[in-house]
Amino acid sequence: MSSPHFSPLPQPGLIVFPGFIAQKPESFFMQEEKVWTLSDSLLVSFASGEPFMKVKCPSRKETVFCTTQGQEVLRITKRKHHFTGKGSEYRGIRPDGSEAFYLALQRKLTETGYDLTVNPISSQTLPLAIQKNVMGQSAVIMVNGSPAAGFKDGNGWTHMRSQFEIHVAPGMDILLALAVNWVRHDKHMEDQKAAVSAATG
């Protein structure tokens, strides 16, 4: 895995989920565990291959991020707008029920934009944006104009399973980066289903 060089975020960093701030540059793999199942399940591993977290989708409207011990650390709720042309909306909920982030897909003629708003634990306000094709990454989260997390899509499917690389700068919230990458994965799956429906309809 080739990791981009992201400069550390200024102290105290972007704290959205306490306990998940990167203390050094970190890299992860996110890969589907099973193929052709109705319930999506992904495994997040360190670059070394050591498991870090599991992502389970018990329903089409909810996704749960758990530690390898089974403790829930994030729940994402999804609202899909049918027949309106408006993109799906995602809300990240902490275990205490508070909202950690809001992400809406902005459907355009040739591409999809990402409108991300976070509710950090600290009172700082940092401009956030998601941009495509920066520093060799498929997409990056920009914090105050600097790349803080990068996502690189796998070359095709590994044994028919989606796989992604996630790279995180020191001071960036790891869980937020993983959540944004999951939304990208979910959007990809939506696009695939829409393409199949259009081809067979």
Automatic annotation (TrEMBL):
Q: Please, which domain of life does this record's source organism belong to?
A: Eukaryota
Stored Pfam families: LOR
SUPFAM superfamilies named among the record's database cross-references: Tubby C-terminal domain-like
Q: What is the lineage of its organism?
A: Eukaryota, Fungi, Dikarya, Ascomycota, Pezizomycotina
Q: What organism is recorded for this protein?
A: Periconia macrospinosa
Matching entries from Gene3D superfamilies are given as: LURP1-related (2.40.160.200)
- Spell out the protein name for this chain: DUF567-domain-containing protein
State the family it belongs to. Belongs to the LOR family.
